[in-house]
Amino acid sequence: MRLLVTGGAGYVGSVCSTVLLENGHDVVVVDDLSTGNADAVPSGAEFIHADIADVAAEVLGAGSGSPRFDGVLHFGAQSLVGESVEFPEKYWQGNVVTTLALLEAMRLSGTPRLVFSSTAATYGEPEQVPITEDAPTRPTNPYGASKLAIDHAISSYAHAHDLAATSLRYFNVAGAYGGAGENRVVETHLIPLVLQVALGQRERISVFGTDWPTKDGTAIRDYIHVKDLADAHMLALSKATAGSHRIYNLGSGEGFTVREVISSCERITGLPISGADAPRRAGDPAVLIASSARAIDELGWKPEHTDLDEIVADAWEFMRNLGDRAHAARR
Ligand SMILES: NC(=O)c1ccc[n+]([C@@H]2O[C@H](COP(=O)([O-])OP(=O)(O)OC[C@H]3O[C@@H](n4cnc5c(N)ncnc54)[C@H](O)[C@@H]3O)[C@@H](O)[C@H]2O)c1
Ligand SMILES: O=c1ccn([C@@H]2O[C@H](COP(=O)(O)OP(=O)(O)O[C@H]3O[C@H](CO)[C@@H](O)[C@H](O)[C@H]3O)[C@@H](O)[C@H]2O)c(=O)[nH]1
């Protein structure tokens, strides 16, 4: 297929572009580099440096009579929970308004398929875990609310305009694949931050909240290997049907506390990692664990890298090999 990838200079988008190319697809990346790096775009992909809201109509050929792409994978977004509480405008504009422009361009060009990066943050604080797709959606931060609004917009476009749409609700993505991984200019995610401490690029890791109702008082998350996530995107592309919007949770199905993640990083790196207790971060839920049963049943998805130590080991190898290309090392 010929595919448009938004956010392909970011972490998940660059790994998925790599896997799309490995599967023989043609890939055009549009990225505004607001959080991504141009050098993360895989060399086999065409790269357009732009905000997708500005160029979607032109790139997709809105009004030209025939679609130029077989589908869009929409990773491009602002996606930091804490930042979204402080600057909600960045999330309503950058996520919702931008995606509405993309959906209009898809409608007007007749682009038939969409795979959207939704999130566990659409559910908010769960009543029970693991979380299924039928769980109530009560986001605890503007980031999750913006993604939920987009999911609703996609559903109505799919049904009214025959779009074959899939929303993949990722839990916490981690690890690396094919030379692509996490190398953000401003990093806020737990695993890369802990590994930056091991690399001597940061003094200690702050543990946000030690009074959560969990076994060691720190927050629990479900870490999914980015290669397993990429595989789910390939299945979503091939299985989607016109006029339907399916939503799938994607995680490994097991939860780890912040302290357990730090211990895993110590085991894998063989280095002691200094932590400092800190207050809870605004907008964070206590526990997020996925039920991916629907993706396993309907898409035939089989996560293959569910061991936390394996996920951390792949992230560690990627970060050690970054050398001068590491943004953290340049600061
Ligand atoms: N990383 C996770 O744990 C996680 C979990 C759930 C959902 N997600 C979702 O997955 C997607 C990718 O996340 P990531 O961790 O790779 O983030 P990232 O910040 O590394 O990548 C996002 C990319 O999108 C680009 N971008 C942002 N707005 C754009 C716009 N308007 N036009 C063009 N490009 C734009 C950025 O420059 C960046 O390269 C996001 O939609 C995010 O909400 C991520
Ligand atoms: O320096 C840090 C950074 C994070 N944490 C904690 O570690 C956990 C994981 O945090 P982080 O890696 O920042 O991810 P989340 O905030 O859980 O969000 C990720 O996972 C969500 C789905 O679960 C996605 O929607 C988001 O896009 C993605 O950033 C949370 O409890 C944080 O409070 C710390 O204790 N110290």
UniProtKB/TrEMBL annotation:
GO terms for molecular function: UDP-glucose 4-epimerase activity. It comes from the Bacteria. The keyword Transcription does not apply. Pathway: Carbohydrate metabolism; galactose metabolism. The keyword Cell inner membrane does not apply. Gene3D superfamilies: NAD(P)-binding Rossmann-like Domain, UDP-galactose 4-epimerase, domain 1. Its EC number is 5.1.3.2. It is an enzyme of class 5 (isomerase). Keywords: Carbohydrate metabolism, Isomerase, NAD. Residues 4-251 form the NAD-dependent epimerase/dehydratase domain. Pfam families: Epimerase. It catalyses: UDP-alpha-D-glucose = UDP-alpha-D-galactose. Its cofactor is NAD(+). NCBIfam families: galE (TIGR01179). Belongs to the NAD(P)-dependent epimerase/dehydratase family. Homodimer. This is UDP-glucose 4-epimerase. It comes from Rhodococcus artemisiae.
